[in-house]
């Protein structure tokens, strides 16, 4: 009788152990899929950061080129004003006029970005 009792315990124990093994395998599979998803996200973040770094480098290079071009233009303008060739007052007047027109345009013409309310809409302030 004691042998049968011990045998039934081992059968139940084997069944419980088998069930625990199946649960462990299931949890390991879930963990594996989560790790794969995390790896995909990490790869996407890396690629995005590389793209942003490249964009920043290109922007920096563009601004450096613009700075150099503006500096060269300013130097040439100063040289032409100092040399006296081509009436410096006329050149300065043209540049000043363009700047003045730009500011007037921004102040009166192009600076208004507030849209007017649609016609015939209730609550537009009309009585």
TrEMBL record:
GO cellular component term of the entry, any: Golgi membrane
Mode of membrane association: Single-pass type IV membrane protein
Boundaries of every T-SNARE coiled-coil homology domain copy: 18-80
Region called Disordered, residue ranges: 1-28
Tagged with keyword Transmembrane: yes
Record-linked InterPro entries: BET1_SNARE, T_SNARE_dom
Gene3D superfamilies referenced in this protein's UniProt entry, alphabetically: 1.20.5.110
Entry coiled-coil feature ranges: none
GO biological process: protein transport
Cellular location(s): Endomembrane system; Golgi apparatus membrane
Keyword Hydrolase: no
Transmembrane stretches, start-end: 92-108
Amino acid composition bias (Polar residues), ranges on this chain: 1-15
Keywords: Golgi apparatus, Membrane, Protein transport, Transmembrane, Transmembrane helix, Transport
Main location per the UniProt record: membrane
Full protein name: t-SNARE coiled-coil homology domain-containing protein
The organism of origin for this protein: Leucosporidium creatinivorum
């Amino acid at each position: 009788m004691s042998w049968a009792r011990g045998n039934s315990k081992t059968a139940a124990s084997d069944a419980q152990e088998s069930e625990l093994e199946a649960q462990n395998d299931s949890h390991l599979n879930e963990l594996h899929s989560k790790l794969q998803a995390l790896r995909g996200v990490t790869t996407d973040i890396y690629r995005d950061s590389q793209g942003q770094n490249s964009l920043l480098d290109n922007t920096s290079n563009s601004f450096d080129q613009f700075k150099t071009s503006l500096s060269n233009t300013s130097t040439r303008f100063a040289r032409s004003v100092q040399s006296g060739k081509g009436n410096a007052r006329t050149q300065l007047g043209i540049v000043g006029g363009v700047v003045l027109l730009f500011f007037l345009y921004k102040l009166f013409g192009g600076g208004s970005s507030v849209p007017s309310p649609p016609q015939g809409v209730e609550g537009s302030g009309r009585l």
